[in-house]
Design brief:
By secondary structure, the chain is an alpha/beta fold. It contains 11 helices and 10 strands. The protein has a domain of 158 residues: P-loop containing nucleotide triphosphate hydrolases (Rossmann fold). It starts with a helix and ends with a helix. The structure holds adenosine-5'-triphosphate (ATP). This is ABC transporter ATP-binding protein.
Length: 258
């Protein structure tokens, strides 16, 4: 299994995830290709976040293999782990910003941790990332508590982009945003993916996001990925959950506005 040969940045094979006796994933396979914007959907509690955590090494699988950038996550050496961390950005569901740090310090923190760049360079790079996600310089010295939900998400995204990753993980990035804010955030993610060639792994419940920006959608049900396809292909699926999801009232509304 070589990431370079297949151009898969992520390869999950036969994943088994458990908490005690509770099986979350069994025989789960998933490929994520370089440059792809992948939406990950599934009912509440189907294990989307657990899958994300397993791929980034925060949860050890009970079975199967996960490779990222061609490194086996389970058997990664310290150097390989560092490589994975440097090439990956994560926007957690709650933003996970440091409340005592300013916006600038939050965005700079991965560079402080992972590079030996001079302080001035780090500050300039952090300022660039903040501008890239559409925040004004006035935000630099604000603390997270002073920001709106949408601004916090943007700061979280700027921090996820801090080390110029090739791959970003987003856990429900538009949750809690109003429809206009969510659409703007979708546009931003798509633009970053197009401009920077970013590969995106995005957990979402937001049908509009799937239609607006995802190249492919992976559906989690019955403890594994039952389909990975375009939204148009999924609309034709016979699986009951997929049918309900895409062809129920909210799905039809999203199709109309796409
Ligand atoms: N640390 C943990 N200890 C025990 N069980 C856990 C732990 N983390 C997650 N789970 C369980 O794993 C299952 C999947 O959780 P997960 O958060 O991945 O679901 P999800 O698909 O992301 O759900 P949602 O869409 O509601 O965010 C749930 O039943 C949850 O209770």
């Amino acid at each position: 299994m070589s990431g370079a040969k297949t151009d898969n940045l992520i390869e999950v094979r036969g994943l088994l995830s458990q908490f005690g006796d509770q099986v979350i994933h069994r025989d789960l396979d998933l490929d994520v290709q370089r440059g792809e914007v992948l939406g990950v959907v599934g009912g509440s509690g189907t294990g989307k976040t657990v899958l994300l955590n397993s791929i980034i090494g925060l949860k050890e699988p009970e079975g199967g293999t996960i490779s990222i950038f061609g490194h086996d996550v389970g058997g990664a050496t310290d150097a390989e782990r560092q490589d994975i961390e440097r090439r990956t950005g994560v926007l957690f569901q709650q933003g996970a910003l440091f409340s005592s740090l300013t916006v600038l310090e939050n965005v700079a923190s991965p560079m402080v941790e992972h590079t030996k760049l001079p302080r001035n360079t780090i500050r300039e790079l952090a300022e660039m990332k903040i501008a890239m996600v559409g925040l004004k310089p006035e935000s630099h010295h604000q603390k997270p508590a002073e920001l709106s939900g949408g601004m916090k998400k943007r700061v979280g995204l700027a921090r996820a982009l801090s080390l110029d990753p090739e791959l970003i993980f987003l856990d429900e990035p538009t949750a809690g945003l109003d429809p206009i804010g969510a659409a703007a955030f979708d546009d931003l993610i798509r633009k970053l993916s197009d401009d920077l060639g970013l590969t995106v792994f995005m957990i979402t419940h937001d049908l509009d996001s799937l239609y607006a920006i995802c190249d492919k959608v992976a559906v989690l049900a019955d403890k594994h990925v039952i389909e990975k396809a375009t939204v148009q292909e999924l609309e034709k699926s016979d699986h009951p959950w997929i049918k309900e999801y895409f062809l129920g009232p909210r799905g039809r509304a999203a199709t109309k506005t796409a």
